[in-house]
């Protein structure tokens, strides 16, 4: 296939691009290389594609409508996988406009590009954060998700609604993927595993929110990528049994679908930290703090739909995943 991967210099996007290239797809990678975190890390991820003729990189942002229009018109993409977004719950508390520009305006441009250029399937990153104030566990795509707790979460929910509109009006098959706390090699420096590893190695304290009583469905990046690939190959279709009398939030009368991709096994933050300590052979100095605004105390993915439709369920144990990250971190930073 000819695939557009947005956010290709990002954590998940770079892993996904490698996987698609390995199976013979042609990948156009789009990324604006912004300075939300270390640009040199993004450049190092892209350097891994230097000798691959199947990969083309274009620097630019989703909000650049002219660029997106020209790109779609000239490349004839079979599938689009939109991973580009302004990420981070906490950053959205202080820089809300960045989320409107990238996650709303940018996603609109993606939808229009797909609509007008015959794209057969749009797959896009949503987030477990859309569950917001929900407390019924595990989180199911068939639950209502109308109570987000951060602007980041609200923009991801908005993406799902915008995609549904285009699936309904124009028959564009769209699939949203709610990722649950992704971690692994080449990870983002603003995420817990990276922050903890760096601080512990430098002998600095780590911030532990909700006094370590948070639970997260940590999901290894290879499992995320496997889920994305399987879903991309399975074009979204309409649910013929859907009814407006009892509307199912996870499916539609239109070719629209959402899936959770999570490890289906929540881990308490204190155990997560203990595992990092074991892999590093060092103890952490913990700065225990209350739950931060916008955060939720627990996440837990129901992946029954993913398993039923694709035959895949994430299963990498947290101990293995953290060990692989620490190995990469030590090698990359020569620690």
Summarize the structure.
The chain is of the alpha/beta class and 335 residues long.
Q: Key features?
A:
alpha/beta, seven-stranded parallel sheet, globular, 335 residues, 11 helices, 13 strands, two-stranded parallel sheet
Helix/strand structural class: alpha/beta
Q: What characteristic shape results from the CA principal axes?
A: globular
Q: What's the N-to-C terminus distance?
A: 40 Å
Order of helices and strands: EHEHEHEHHEHEEHEEEHEEHEHH
Largest sheet geometry: 7 strands, parallel
Report the C-alpha radius of gyration, rounded.
19 Å
Explain the layout of strands and helices.
Elements: E1 2-6, H1 11-22, E2 26-31, H2 39-47, E3 55-59, H3 65-75, E4 79-82, H4 91-94, H5 96-116, E5 121-127, H6 151-170, E6 174-179, E7 182-183, H7 192-201, E8 206-208, E9 215-216, E10 219-220, H8 221-232, E11 256-261, E12 267-268, H9 269-280, E13 286-288, H10 304-310, H11 318-332
Q: Could you please describe the fold and organization of this structure?
A:
- With 335 residues, this protein is an alpha/beta fold.
- The protein contains eleven helices and 13 strands.
- It has a seven-stranded parallel beta sheet, sandwiched between helices. A two-stranded parallel sheet has the order 7-10.
- Helix 9 packs across helix 11.
- It is globular, with a radius of gyration of 19 Å.
- The termini are far apart.
- The model has no long low-confidence stretch (mean pLDDT 96).
């Amino acid at each position: 296939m000819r695939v557009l991967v947005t956010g290709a210099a990002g954590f998940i996007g770079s892993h996904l691009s490698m996987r698609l290239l390995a199976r013979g797809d042609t990948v156009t990678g789009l990324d604006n290389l912004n300075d939300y975190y270390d640009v040199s890390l993004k450049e190092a991820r892209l350097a891994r594609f230097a000798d691959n003729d199947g990969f083309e990189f274009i620097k630019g942002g989703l909000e650049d409508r002219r660029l997106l229009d020209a790109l779609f018109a000239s490349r004839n993409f079979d599938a689009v996988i939109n991973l580009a977004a302004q990420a981070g719950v906490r950053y959205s508390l202080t820089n809300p406009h960045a989320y409107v520009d990238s996650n709303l305006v940018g996603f609109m441009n993606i939808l229009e590009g797909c609509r007008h250029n015959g794209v057969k399937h749009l797959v896009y990153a949503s987030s477990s954060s859309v569950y917001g104030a929900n407390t019924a566990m595990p989180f199911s795509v068939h639950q209502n998700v109308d109570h987000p707790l951060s602007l980041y979460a609200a923009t991801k929910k908005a993406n799902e609604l915008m995609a549904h509109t285009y699936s309904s009006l124009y028959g564009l098959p769209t699939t949203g993927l709610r990722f649950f706390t992704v971690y692994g090699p080449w990870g983002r420096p603003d995420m817990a595993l990276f922050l903890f590893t760096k601080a512990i190695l430098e002998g600095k304290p780590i911030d532990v929110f909700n006094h370590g009583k948070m639970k997260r469905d940590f999901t290894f990046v290879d499992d995320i990528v496997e889920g994305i690939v399987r879903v991309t190959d399975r074009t979204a279709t309409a649910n013929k049994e859907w009814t407006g009398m009892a509307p199912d939030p996870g499916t539609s009368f239109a070719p629209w679908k959402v899936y959770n991709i999570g490890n289906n096994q929540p881990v308490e933050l204190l155990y997560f930290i203990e595992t990092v300590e074991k892999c590093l052979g060092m103890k952490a100095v913990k700065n225990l703090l209350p739950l931060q605004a916008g955060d939720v105390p627990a996440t837990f993915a129901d992946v029954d739909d993913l398993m039923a439709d694709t035959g895949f369920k994430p299963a990498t144990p947290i101990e293995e995943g953290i060990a692989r990250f620490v190995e990469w971190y030590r090698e990359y930073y020569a620690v």
